[in-house]
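Entry 14. Structure prediction run on the chain below.
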Amino acid sequence: MAAKRKRHTPEFKTKVTLAALKGDMTSNELASKFQVTPSQISTWKRQLIEEAPTIFTHPSKKKTKSEEEITSPLFEEIGRLKIQLDWLKKKSKELNF
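Output returned:
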C-alpha cells in the first residue's frame, strides 16, 4: 500500500524556504528539522526565486479579465431574468391578475 503524500501549507513552505535562503543551516539539517527531503527544499527555493519578481508587480499590471469575460455572465443572467419575467407576465394574464 502506497503512503499518502504529505501536503504542506504555503506558510510552512515559506518558513522552510526562508530558512534555506538564510544559509545558517545546510539542506540536510533543514530537512531533518522540518521533516522534508533536501530535494523538496531545493524545489521550493527555486520556485521562490523564480516567482519573486511577481510579488512586487503593481496590481494593475497583473493579469486582468477582459471586458468580455466580465460582461458575458452578466448578459447571460439578464437574458435568463428577462425570459422569467416574460413567462411570469404571460401567466399572470392567464390568471387574470
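The chain has four helices and no strands.
Filed with the rest of this week's runs.
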